[in-house]
Amino acid sequence: MNLILLGAPGAGKGTQAEIICEKLGIPAISTGNIIREALKNGTELGLRAKSYMDAGALVPDEVVIAIIQERLAQDDCKNGFILDGFPRTVPQARALDEMGVRIDKVIDIEVPDEKIEQRLGGRRVCEACGASYHLLFKPSSAGEACGKCGGKLIVRKDDQPETIRERLKVYHDQTEPLKDYYAQTGKLTVVEGQEEVADTTELTLAALEA
Fold this sequence. Notes:
Elements: E1 2-7, H1 13-24, E2 28-30, H2 31-41, H3 44-54, H4 61-72, E3 81-84, H5 90-98, E4 105-110, H6 113-121, E5 123-126, E6 132-134, E7 153-154, H7 161-175, H8 177-183, E8 188-192, H9 197-209
Parallel strand pairs: 1-3, 1-4, 2-3, 4-8
Antiparallel strand pairs: 5-6, 5-7
């Protein structure tokens, strides 16, 4: 089964992708991870992506699409795959169609913006050992310090309120139109993100079997 997971940053796409990956035995492909891997392996496309990233620019669509195409051609994708974080825009979705990539289902995990702000804004990371916590859902046993090493807990730039709001704005402007794009093909299923990960998983797996 060839799947796409849609949803705002912090909606839980990555978590659900990992669970589906284990259940169906198909790879979860995250754009960020592929680009990092291409950089690490020093591939021609990886080096092209690096030149844009070093300049602080967005990696252009044609480079991202070529990297995805290269990844989907690998043997482990023969029985299916899960795309997480791609396509991000309607032009990218069209490019995927033009590549002849068949998509069976698109699952959109819906979580209200205020819940996302609460989820992302509550994240804390240990400056010393990298352990991650959440003020509400996974507090540190040492209060404002790291429960593992006693290091200082910090808010990553990605988790600062103004950054979260900007990421949500970009999502609504650029990525949300994909819902209409895939709804017109009859492939879109909306799953309401729940407080408990297991409850969202139950709804997601039911949507895959429907």
